[in-house]
Amino acid sequence: MNEKIIKLSKIYGKKPEEIIEELADRELRNGPPAGLGPRLMWIRGIQSMTRDELAEAAGISASSIGAYERGDQEPKAGAIVALAKVLKVSTDFLLGVSGKEAEP
């Protein structure tokens, strides 16, 4: 878990997941963030999809998706492709290479 998230959770007396969700809510209003984890959480939030729903649809465990979002784990190429398909975005967009959600 990111040290900053842990510190914030202690300061505000909240679970790290609550801090992450609040940060995600704020980012939803600001447009897509940089980095795979925050961008994955942002897209999931835009689509009102829970971690469990995304996990089931992509064939990836919910704990792995949580680890990707927190930056604790990097997904393999196959997981990136599966996530992009389920979220209906390009892999480049998911990785932050492109600002376009889908290729023309």
Verbal overview:
The protein has helices at 3-12, 16-30, 36-46, 51-58, 62-70, 77-87, 91-95. The protein is mainly alpha-helical. The radius of gyration is 13 Å and the shape is globular. It contains seven helices and no strands. It has one domain: 434 Repressor (Amino-terminal Domain). The termini are far apart. Helix 4 crosses helix 5 (62-70).
Summarize the structure.
With 104 residues, the chain is an all-alpha fold.
Q: What about the largest sheet?
A: none
The fraction of residues assigned to DSSP E strands is under 5%
Question: Helix tally?
Answer: 7
For the termini, the CA-CA separation is: 36 Å
Apparent shape: globular
Q: Give the full name of the CATH homologous superfamily.
A: lambda repressor-like DNA-binding domains
Which spans have pLDDT < 50 for at least 5 consecutive residues? none
Class per helix and strand makeup = mainly alpha
Order of helices and strands: HHHHHHH
The CATH architecture designation is Orthogonal Bundle
Roughly how much helix do the residues carry, as a percent range?
55-70%
By CATH, the topology is 434 Repressor (Amino-terminal Domain)
The CATH class assignment is: Mainly Alpha
What's the number of extended β-strand segments?
Answer: 0
The whole-number mean of residue pLDDT values reads 85
List the helices and strands and how they pair.
Blueprint: H1 3-12, H2 16-30, H3 36-46, H4 51-58, H5 62-70, H6 77-87, H7 91-95
Helix pairs in contact: 1-2, 2-3, 3-5, 4-5
